[in-house]
Amino acid sequence: MANTIAGPDGKPRCGWCAATDDFFPYHDNEWGFPVDDDQRLFEKICLEGFQSGLSWRTILAKRENFRAAFKQFDFDKVAKFVEKDIERLLQDAGIVRHRGKIEAVINNAQRAKEMVREEGSLAAYFWGFEPEEIPGAVPQSVSTSEVSKTISKDLKKRGWKFVGPTTVYAFMQAMGLINDHATDCVTRKAVDRARKQFKRPSVR
User: Fold this and answer.
1) Model confidence over 59-99: pLDDT tens digits?
2) Which of 16, 31, 43, 56 is catalytic?
3) Which of 24, 45, 65, 119 is the most exposed place for a label (fewest CB within 10 A)?
4) pTM above 0.85, yes or no
5) Is 56 a catalytic residue?
6) Candidate list 16, 31, 43, 48, residue with the active-site label
7) In the CATH scheme, what is the code of domain 32-124+138-197?
C-alpha cells in the first residue's frame, strides 16, 4: 500500500507530498483528475520529458516559467519555433536549459499537429489507451505498465521524443488515465468521482 502523510487539514494524502508543501495544491487539485484539454495534455507530456533525470519538485517550481517560455504550450505556436528560439531558451535561467529536451518540445509540437489531423485530438488519442482498472492493484507500486510501454512505442514510431515508458506512465497518473492515489488518500475518492463523471473523448 502506498504511504500517506497528514495534509494541512489533518487528512491523509499520498506520501510523496512530504517533499514540499507546494505539492499539496497540485496533489489535491490536479494530479489524477481526468484531462481532455489538448493544450494541457501537451504541456504535461513535455514537462514529464523535462523531468527525465530530475525531480518533479524542480519542474513544478519552474512550471510558470516553462509556460511563458513555450507560449503556454500552444503546440501550433511552438511548432513554428526555429533555431533563434532554441538559443533564446538556452539562455532562459527560469527553465531547464537542456538543448535536447528543448528541441524535443518543438519536435513534439509538430508531431502533435500531425496527431490532431490523424486522430482528431490528442485527447482522443491518449484516452483511447485508457486501461481497465485492475481490482486489488496497489497504487504507486510500479513506474511503468504494459499500456505505458505500448503508448511510448507508438509515440516514438510517430516521431515523438523523450516519451519513454516511465515518462508516459507518469503522464497517465497525472492526467487521470488511471487513479494511482494511495488507497487511504482523501483525494482518491474525489478522483474516482471525477473519472466516473468524465466524458471520454470520442475516438476516430
Assistant:
1) 999 999 999 999 999 999 999 999 999 999 999 999 999 99
2) 56
3) 65
4) yes
5) yes
6) 48
7) 1.10.340.30
